[in-house]
Design a protein that fits this description.
Helix content is 52%, strand content 11%. It is an alpha/beta fold. Helix 1 packs parallel to helix 12, helix 2 packs parallel to helix 3 and helix 12 packs antiparallel against helix 13. The two termini are 66 Å apart.
Length: 568
């Protein structure tokens, strides 16, 4: 009895080519143009092997595999124009037995079909249904695996690989041996998938698989100063250094200003104190003597003493001069000729000495900067200046610490943005940063998120367009190559129908090349668009024909109405 093969492809020419060729090879064939039709046909016809395209309307090949593998274990060979390694891995992981890319030779396809069927027939005869080894139980009929009585979920490829290993005890397998056992003796391009399956099996079957340690890139310093070379300083460090410098300059200026102000106020108070003392002594002396004549020194005043209890205690402080009402020097500097100060001598401060009735009896004057500082006053001023500088440096240190904390908080979104930008630079366009706040940095992050999403969308469209173009180019090449090889080898006889099919695929290739040229001109900005008259009825008919299958599958009824007049 001949084997029944289900051919699933959305292209009628490909289905016809495969059906004619396989029928000549002695196989019985049924066909389906979509994943849904294939699922219905496979459930009712129960084929021995399925040739499955991936890119189909309604339900693609991957979705078909996911659904059908839950029901039956029929061998499946993928026939597709998708040549990326990730697509091969996904297909094999989902349960495909082989992966053939378009365009393919008919002789090669026939060899792969025979290899897959031979492997399944041999496995069904020679291997027992239940295998046990080292606490692992594998049931081929139920396609279940248990470790110490606990069921473990495996993918189809992992299950088949484990079955091969457990069914061949004592045998050492090379990578190519396992590929041949799983995917046929001429499978190519999937050598490293065996390593992935072995690693996944060990992770699922071993009780405590060793896990990778923390990656060094995840360990980051709290305040990175240099990352790439000695001259690159991080933004956080620049922020903190700026705050430190600004704080130091500000506090130093503040300390100098406060120190100068303190010194001026202290000098003013000290001078006022000396002037008051001289004024009080002069008034006491005048009250006792009736004039300032003979006044040559300060009178020591005891607290609470009366005017008659005052006693002389020496001369005036240096720099302090007592003048009489006429401006003659009474005391406070070496005697001058006639007591008159020399011409041009100026006094910094003049404080009148007046009686209670307002009578002016003299003046207290200061020469140059006034009396010198007392040693105790100088110590006080020095301690004050020192305390101000210490306070300034302390405040700067606190400002640096607070600035470092604030920099870590405020610059966190910027660090996230920097990481995302480098990820985009490496090609990872699926970057999104959480936005908090409404400041300028938040606006920048929102703009980046929009840009990243748009780049991802455009990249996905470009990848999809590339895949579609490859698919559309490979499919007619498959038909042309298949018919020519089959007719050359004598597997198929030339006929007007088959030659017409080849001619139709050549026409499709011609149109595809013209479309690619148009896309290239549009991408280069050199495409010139010109208005041309169209027939709306013909355009609507083309759209209806293009989407007829999708509309029928979804129960959509098509109705079009054309107006008599259309706006230009």
């Amino acid at each position: 009895m001949s084997k029944l093969i289900l051919i699933v492809d959305d292209n009628l020419s490909v289905r016809t080519l495969l059906r004619d060729y396989l029928t000549e090879q002695g196989y019985a064939c049924v066909t389906a143009g979509s994943g849904r039709d294939a699922l219905f046909t496979a459930r009712h016809e129960k084929p021995d092997l399925i040739l499955l395209d991936i890119m189909m309307p309604e339900m693609d090949g991957f979705d078909f595999l996911r659904q059908y593998r839950k029901e039956r274990d029929t061998p499946v060979i993928l026939l597709t124009a998708r040549v990326e390694e990730t697509d091969k891995v996904i297909g094999l992981e989902l349960g495909a037995d082989d992966y053939v890319t378009k365009p393919f030779g008919m002789a090669e396809l026939g060899a792969r079909i025979r290899a897959v069927l031979r492997r399944y027939d041999k496995a069904a005869v020679s291997v027992p249904d239940v295998l046990r080894a080292g606490g692992i139980t594998l049931d081929r009929e139920q396609r279940t695996v248990a470790v110490s009585g606990q069921r473990v979920d495996l993918t189809r490829s992992e299950f088949d690989l484990l079955a091969v290993l457990m069914g061949s005890r004592g045998r050492t397998f090379s990578r190519m041996d396992l590929i041949e056992a799983l995917h046929g003796e001429i499978a190519q391009g999937v050598e490293r998938t065996i390593d992935v399956h072995i690693r996944n099996l060990r992770a699922k079957l071993e009780p405590d698989p060793r896990r990778a340690a923390l990656h060094p890139d995840r360990v980051r310093g709290w305040l990175p100063v240099c990352r790439r070379g000695l001259m690159r300083v991080s933004l956080t460090a620049k922020w903190v250094l700026s705050i430190a410098l600004a704080s130091l300059v500000g506090m130093a200026v503040a300390a100098v200003v406060v120190n100068n102000a303190t010194s001026r106020d202290f000098d003013r108070l000290r001078i006022e104190r000396e002037v008051d003392n001289v004024t009080t002594a002069a008034l006491l002396y005048f009250a006792r003597e009736g004039s300032l004549d003979g006044f040559s020194g300060m009178l020591g005043l005891r607290r609470g003493a009366g005017l008659g209890e005052a006693s002389s205690r020496g001369g005036l402080p240096p720099g302090v001069v007592l003048l009489d009402a006429e401006g003659n020097i009474v005391t406070g500097m070496p005697p001058l000729a006639g007591g008159v100060p020399p011409a041009g001598m100026a006094f910094n401060t003049l404080s009148p000495v007046m009686l209670d009735d307002g009578t002016l009896i003299g003046q207290v004057a200061l020469i140059a900067s006034g009396p010198p500082l007392d040693p105790r006053d100088q110590i006080y001023l020095d301690n004050t200046a020192r305390a101000l500088m210490i306070g300034a440096f302390g405040a700067a240190a606190v400002a640096v610490a607070v600035g470092a904390v604030l920099a870590r908080v405020f610059l966190r979104p910027l660090r996230a943005l920097n990481t995302a930008i480098h990820a985009v630079e490496r090609g990872d366009l699926k970057q999104h940063i959480d936005v908090r706040g409404s400041d300028e940095l938040a606006d920048v992050i929102r703009a980046f998120n929009r840009m990243s999403a748009e780049l991802a969308r455009v990249n996905a469209l470009r990848r999809q367009m590339t895949a579609d173009i490859a698919h559309d180019l490979r499919t007619p090449l498959t038909v042309i190559r298949g018919y020519l090889e089959a007719m050359t080898d004598g597997a198929l006889t030339p006929s007007p129908e088959r030659l017409a099919a080849i001619r139709g695929e050549v026409t499709i290739l011609h149109h595809l090349i013209e479309d690619l040229r148009t896309l290239s001109l549009a991408d280069a900005g050199e495409l010139r668009l010109e208005r041309q008259p169209i027939q709306p009825a013909a355009l609507l008919a083309d759209v209806r024909e293009a989407f007829a299958l999708q509309a029928e599958a979804r129960g959509v009824t098509w109705k079009s109405t054309q107006r008599r007049t259309c706006r230009r």
